[in-house]
Design a protein that fits this description.
single chain; alpha+beta; 4-stranded antiparallel β-sheet; 7 helices
Length: about 200
């Protein structure tokens, strides 16, 4: 949006939420627990990927493509690779922020609390702009993984599915933030990050 944070109140916006990044996980859990479009879509995605992973694990085992031990080993390879994709996930967020007009982007992380996020300092994002940012990693990475499935043998199919399963789970923060917008769909919600204060603000009108 072409508006500065200090001009929000003059344009009729009021502060609705001040989210300290240290409180990100409880915030996400709370809004993922709400009955919103984003929380429902996220649940469906997880159920679908989990079901597909379980189906193919058993299907290939029964077909004699691998032993159950080999299938599980390759599945766990996928789990490990998904962790290595975390920087890629956040980089895609940053690219999406830049595509929406953000000039000052960076990253924040807390390994102890296990959260990672892309930050667009003082960039006020509308709901539509934030949706683009939030959904970019799951759309890009999941699309690449699904296409890859057409070129893998059963062992590596399980690896790809393992990556997809864990990466989808890692997207809970993105969908939790979107769920906040959905929960307040009766208002025009905007948001921006304060990098120095490690805070995200939500304003609405």
């Amino acid at each position: 949006m072409d508006i500065k944070p200090e001009d929000l109140e003059a344009n009729g916006y009021v502060l609705m939420e001040k989210l300290e990044h240290m409180e990100l996980i409880p915030f996400v859990r709370m809004y993922m627990g709400k009955w919103t479009r984003s929380s429902i879509i996220y649940t469906i995605c997880n159920v679908f990927v989990f079901g597909a992973t379980g189906y193919f694990l058993i299907h290939f085992y029964k077909e004699g493509a691998y032993t159950m031990e080999d299938g599980l080993i390759h599945l766990f390879y996928g789990f490990a690779i998904a962790f290595l994709l975390l920087p890629v996930h956040e980089f895609i967020h940053v690219l999406a922020y830049k595509s929406q007009g953000a000039k000052h982007t960076s990253y924040d992380a807390n390994l102890k609390m296990f959260y990672f996020l892309a930050v667009a300092d003082k960039f006020v994002a509308s709901k539509k702009e934030f949706q683009m940012v939030a959904l970019a990693p799951i759309v890009v990475i999941s699309s690449v993984l699904l296409v890859t499935l057409f070129f893998t043998d059963p062992d590596w199919t399980m690896t790809v599915l393992g990556v997809l399963l864990v990466h989808t789970a890692f997207c809970s923060g993105d969908f939790g933030m979107l769920s906040y917008f959905d929960f307040h769909k009766d208002k025009d919600i905007v948001t921006y990050d304060d990098k120095a204060g490690r805070v995200t603000y939500f304003y609405g009108k």
